[in-house]
């Protein structure tokens, strides 16, 4: 069992996680973006990956969803290896990816965008049920169902991107920086709905974020990614109490005995 799976089991997770990433290495040309990353997502849990810009968070999600192929390592989902499979096959297995920057279809209506999320499905009755559920989560989408997606605000487009992913009825939802560029009130609204999706539908969620305070409040297990490596992992409650997280992600700087602020020193994770 990998270190990531062992950590999950220690947090009360299952011995066989829904998703396990084992020592993946993924490159952009000659540049190694992620370096031996291992993590696990237990069934029904919210797992958070924290990291600054360029840490490799987006690359991790792209590797899982098949958008990028790793040079080394494995991606295991429901006990089967899905490494290097085509993205459409991964979606069909029950993994939906909400990319950074939302990436809605701007010239299609809200309703048409949501229909695109269910393009692999044939169960019309189930699709209608899920559409109604999405409109329940995001009433503003119902109000703008016939409006072009490109005319929506940034927050509404983020709602649409999440709603489109839910139309695939996923077992695992990959969320890439859902708070990016949004006002604090909208961030709270989005994360409240993410919590509802996890709680009410039992959808497992892998969330990558820079907004550590909000992400750790909704998550169960957290990893910290720095320069393509996992440097810390623990329960989200425990991470919120760690000095390094308080300093480098929450902005809570402490003063040492000699009056020198720890944040001016070299960052040493422990």
Q: Tags for this entry?
A:
11 helices; 10 strands; single chain; alpha/beta; 270 residues
Q: Can you offer a commentary on this structure?
A:
With 270 residues, the chain is α/β, with parallel strands linked by helices. Helices cover 37% and strands 23% of the residues. A 6-stranded mixed beta sheet has the order 6-7-8-3-9-10, sandwiched between helices. A 4-stranded antiparallel beta sheet has the order 2-1-4-5, sandwiched between helices. Helix 4 (110-116) packs parallel to helix 7 (154-166).
Distance between the termini: 23 Å
Query: In percent, how much strand structure appears in the residues?
Result: 15-25%
User: What class, by secondary structure content?
Assistant: alpha/beta
Q: What is the N-to-C order of secondary-structure elements (H for helix, E for strand)? A: HEEEHEEHEHHHHEHEHEEHH
Helix content: 25-40%
- Globular, elongated, flat, extended or rod-shaped: what is the shape? globular
The low-confidence runs, each spanning 5 or more residues with pLDDT under 50, are 257-266
Average predicted local confidence, pLDDT = 88
Strands across the major sheet, in which order?
6-7-8-3-9-10
- With helices defined by DSSP (H or I, 4 residues minimum), what is the helix count? 11
Which helices and strands appear, and what pairs or packs with what?
Blueprint: H1 3-10, E1 19-28, E2 31-41, E3 46-50, H2 57-65, E4 72-77, E5 80-81, H3 87-93, E6 95-98, H4 110-116, H5 124-137, H6 139-143, H7 154-166, E7 172-176, H8 184-201, E8 204-209, H9 212-218, E9 221-226, E10 229-235, H10 236-241, H11 243-248
Parallel strand pairs: 3-8, 3-9, 6-7, 7-8
Antiparallel strand pairs: 1-2, 1-4, 4-5, 9-10
């Amino acid at each position: 069992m990998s270190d990531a799976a062992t950590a999950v089991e220690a947090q009360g997770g299952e011995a066989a996680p829904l998703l396990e990433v084992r020592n993946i290495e993924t490159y952009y040309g000659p540049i190694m973006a992620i370096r031996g990353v291992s993590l696990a997502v237990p069934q029904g849990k919210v797992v958070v990956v924290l990291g600054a810009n360029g840490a490799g968070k987006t690359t991790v999600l792209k590797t899982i969803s098949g958008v990028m192929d790793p040079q080394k390592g494995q991606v295991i989902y429901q006990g089967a290896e899905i490494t290097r499979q085509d993205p459409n096959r991964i979606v069909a297995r029950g993994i939906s990816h909400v990319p950074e920057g939302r990436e809605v279809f701007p010239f299609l209506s809200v309703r048409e965008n949501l229909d695109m999320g269910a393009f692999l499905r044939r169960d019309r009755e189930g699709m209608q049920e899920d559409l109604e559920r999405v409109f329940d989560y995001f009433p503003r989408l119902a109000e703008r169902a016939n409006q072009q997606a490109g005319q929506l605000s940034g927050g509404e487009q983020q709602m649409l991107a999440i709603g489109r992913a839910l139309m695939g009825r996923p077992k695992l939802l990959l969320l890439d920086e859902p708070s990016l560029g949004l006002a604090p009130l909208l961030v709270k609204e989005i994360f409240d709905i993410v919590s509802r999706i996890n709680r009410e539908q039992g959808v497992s969620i892998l969330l990558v974020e820079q907004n550590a305070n909000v992400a750790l409040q909704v998550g169960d297990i957290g990893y910290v990614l720095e320069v393509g490596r996992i440097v810390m992992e623990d329960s989200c409650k425990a991470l919120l109490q760690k000095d390094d997280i308080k300093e480098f992600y929450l902005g809570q700087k402490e003063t040492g005995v000699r009056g020198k602020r720890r944040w001016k020193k070299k960052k040493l994770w422990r």
